[in-house]
Amino acid sequence: MELDKYDRHILEIIQQRGRVSNQELADAINLSPSPCLRRVRQLEESGLIDGYVALVNARKLGLNLLSFIQIIMDKHTPERFATFEQSVMEFSEVLECHLITGQAADYVLKVIVKDMDDFQQFLLDKLTRIDGVSGVHSSFVLKSPVKKTSLPV
User: Fold this and answer.
1) One domain, residues 33 and 73
2) Considering 6, 67, 134, 141, which has the largest number of Cβ atoms within 10 A of its Cβ?
3) Which Pfam families match (predicted)?
């Protein structure tokens, strides 16, 4: 799908204010409501807009410890990777899982828990019990000066 200036502007606004009404969006991009809505629907149907979410404050839920965990696998086989990926998908603590290159690790996970006790339980009772996990290196977030959800368009 070829994006014009209106489509890009729609994507920028929706990423910042997902609950914006069609009328407000149309006013912001200087289009009438009907063609604006048609453009939003085209962006949704094309897959450029994957969905809509609410961003929840983790600290207000008591989730205070954010970590990045590098995972080293014992074997580099599709089956081993599939087993690992399926396992971490089931853990609510895992916010993101990335297969990476350029490091000794095979995966990096973004994990959030309440505190260090919960982290220890997650690590020992869940993560290290996955077949094939041979090494784990954890880093803890002290501060997040940049935290975005919107992509440049």
Assistant:
1) no
2) 67
3) AsnC_trans_reg, HTH_24
Same-domain check for residues 24 and 68: no
What's the whole-model pTM score?
0.90
Residue 124's alpha-carbon distances to 117, 120, 130, in angstroms, are 11, 6, 10
Bridge partners of 132? none
Does residue 134 share a domain with residue 63?
yes
Same domain? For 107 and 133 the reply is yes
Q: Does residue 63 share a domain with residue 40?
A: no
Residue in 20, 144, 41 with CA at minimum distance from that of residue 29: 20
User: Would residue 150 count as lying in a domain?
Assistant: no
Q: What is the pLDDT along the chain (153 residues), one digit of tens a residue?
A: 899 999 999 999 999 999 999 999 999 999 999 999 999 999 999 999 999 999 999 999 999 999 999 999 999 999 999 999 999 999 999 999 999 999 999 999 999 999 999 999 999 999 999 999 999 999 999 999 999 999 999
Q: Are 79 and 86 contacting, i.e. CB atoms less than 8 angstroms apart? A: no
Helix (H, G, I), strand (E, B) or coil at 148: coil
